[in-house]
Design goal:
Layout (H helix, E strand, L loop, with lengths): L1 H7 L3 H9 L7 E4 L2 E3 L2 H12 L4 H15 L4
Helix pairs in contact: 3-4
């Protein structure tokens, strides 16, 4: 998680807040207590922020990215 927070330039608590607000994609479970953030999703959200997307647009993007996980299997 720490690497993902660093990519956004956020402290861990701020990063977790943004995840809970739907502004950053949530982690995936790797089994047990292990979790990881999908790098391509993080890249996509960062690009949206850089391009000036609104919070509402980013929330929609995050929902779409999470939904796309279902299609990967």
């Amino acid at each position: 998680m720490l690497e993902a927070a660093k990519r956004f330039g956020l402290a861990k608590s701020s990063f977790y807040d943004r995840v809970s607000q739907g502004l950053i994609t949530p982690p995936i479970s790797l089994g047990g207590r292990a979790k990881a953030y999908v790098e391509s999703e993080i890249d996509t959200v960062l690009k949206a922020m850089i391009s000036g997307k609104t919070e509402s647009e980013i929330k929609t993007l995050v929902l779409d990215l999470v939904q796309q996980r279902q299609n990967l299997a």
